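Quick one, T. Sequence first:
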Amino acid sequence: MQVPIAISDKAGKESVRFGNTAPGNSEDRFGWVNGISACGDNVCVVDSNYRRITLWTRDGKYLGFAKFTSLFGLAGDVVWTNDISTAKDGSVFIPAGQSRTGVKVGEGLIFRVTGF
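Structure tokens:
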């Protein structure tokens, strides 16, 4: 079952919905949402299952995605992220972890992303 993100106002009325719930493997669906935050004039969603960040307009229109492996140059056996935080200047901070390929080393990293 695919579940979208729904945002409600103070009265509990749904105002915006993000994510495709139709069957299939479209880019605009979520695997496991770990964080959602403002990204400039848009909204960023961190998805640890698909190991990517998706970008949406504030009214719920899907704009695209970037894989964490490509965006951050991560190449370990396991790449994981679980949060996102917006700074006052509009940049976002994303913590990530990876297990290096072929060795018993785990790394924790924090990335700053700008340009939204």
